[in-house]
């Protein structure tokens, strides 16, 4: 018996849909399957499977080749150009139909009726009637035109015959030739022309259809390029995905929102009403659109991300706001990638001064326009996720305020960080640290500021003025501007012992200090009801919101209802939009997106210390510290050099320290150093032969050098005595 392993016939039948092969020895219709019959059936099945596998391979190859050809870039390019020609022909068809049926006028009349403007309806009806009348006259004049052309042809031919006869007659009479030769020459010329035409007619007749067809195709392609739109699936890698922001693009993006009123309005063929057509505005495009009845600009603003996709922009690059009416959309769209340009360098980095009554440099809008932070008669709340730029924004405001020699700075940082340490020489009050005694000092300083608010109220009554002006701020009467910053305010407000008192003091200061030239900046990561009193957020007319996590924080920084109205810092991406904020109260707009200037305080690249040194020099030149209330309170000159060396020996440690930080140590040591700046300290040391080197504008004072100079001074004194 044959012991060769046999294939599973049932499995083969299941896979390939072939008849089930009988087993050897199986009884079929009374007959037993023999070995020969089984071998024959097995061979037959093997051949069938081979044919099936070959067929499947052929189909796979064909399908793969077809897929590769269909997705090839050259195929896409061919389909793209073919579709462009088709769209051009369709555009011609539409324009011909509009011309024949006066579609343009019908649509304008319909739009005017939708607006309810009967004057405009009458104007378009009159225009339509004039055009119809002119067209009717042209049609009626066609027979006259044809008759005129025939007459002109007959007259022209008769004139030609007369001219030829006259020329022949003159030639005959003058003896220059014979009359018959002239007429014969003209006839020969005509015969040659007709023969040439007959000879060229056949090739021209053969080529003309191709030339005409090619001209039509090229014309249609050009028309399609101008008026057609390539579908996304045909876009090739060489094509830019950006679009031109114009009235058509904006209308398409609004239609894609699928708001029923807008969809129905556009379906009726009515054009969107642009109170301000799309035009260049800074680093983007600006347009003002009257929306169809029943649609508010706020409803569109809520769909800002969806609107941005239709304009091929990031959501932060599209800024829809409410115009002069609820149904007017004021839309500004940034150029693609406008945010990547940044705010640029701080404008007062090298020189310049500030008048805080006019505002301080803060950043640039997306339009590229410089933005000032208004300070007087205002308070500021600044917040956002960690690392997004809120401390940097507060630093920019305080650096600007420092450049006004009449301004006093007070800074409290209930945390251990270096963000504001360089401001120490310019501050009348400075606290850094989260320990209980530090929080207690912050509370004491806020009580002092609260008392200052009350004292200034009495001064306003005495001088009979409703608010502090530039004139009174410059006088030495105790009404100079005060800029107080509470950084990481939530830490102080949530302190178990002093938090409640600090919160209430902040509320009173922002309520009453505004007209009294006291500007409070509250900076926090978490502006919630537990970490920030609501009366503080409500009374801060300036709001600076970096990327935040939810609508609660957004509205706490930008005002109640800001999120629902589309003013959303939640759409800023942490990390990607670092240094970019949504601000309120800085301009006439409800909000603006601003890229904030950056001032570095790192030891290797300290940009703030030179600014503060300039401000201290301006104070010294003015001859009066801002927080002094005594008339003619002059900044005294530094003490004699040998006393200076002794005092430096006392205040310095073992490591070099920047001159800007050594100066406040001397000020705290003795009152005669009041107003001393780092730059002045370097100059005074130079008089005794101690040169302070410049190291990236830091000017480190080395205690070893100071003590050596002091020892040399002592040795010289002993020599003099001997």
Described by strand count, sense and barrel closure, the largest sheet is: 10 strands, mixed
Structural class: alpha/beta
What is the CA-CA span between the terminal residues? 137 Å
Tally of individual helices: 23
Strand order of the largest sheet: 8-7-16-15-14-9-13-12-10-11
- What is the C-alpha radius of gyration, as a whole number of Å? 44 Å
Uncertain segments: 1-20, 629-642
> What's the helical proportion of residues?
40-55%
Structure commentary:
This protein is α/β, with parallel strands linked by helices and 722 residues long. Helix content is 51%, strand content 12%. The protein has 23 helices and 18 strands. The strands form four sheets. A ten-stranded mixed beta sheet has the order 8-7-16-15-14-9-13-12-10-11. Strand 7 and strand 8 form a beta hairpin. The longest helix has 49 residues. The N terminus is likely disordered.
Ordered list of secondary-structure elements with their pairings:
Elements: H1 9-16, E1 27-28, E2 31-32, H2 35-71, H3 73-101, H4 103-115, H5 118-140, H6 142-174, H7 179-227, H8 247-255, H9 260-267, E3 273-281, E4 284-290, H10 297-302, H11 304-310, E5 318-322, E6 328-334, E7 360-365, E8 370-373, E9 380-383, H12 390-402, E10 408-413, E11 427-432, H13 436-463, H14 470-474, E12 482-486, H15 489-493, H16 499-512, E13 518-524, H17 534-538, E14 542-545, H18 551-558, E15 580-584, E16 592-596, H19 608-622, H20 641-651, E17 657-658, H21 659-669, H22 678-686, E18 700-701, H23 703-721
Parallel strand pairs: 9-13, 9-14, 10-11, 10-12, 12-13
Antiparallel strand pairs: 1-2, 3-4, 4-6, 5-6, 7-8, 7-16, 14-15, 15-16, 17-18
Helix pairs in contact: 3-7, 4-5, 6-7, 8-11, 13-16, 20-23, 21-22
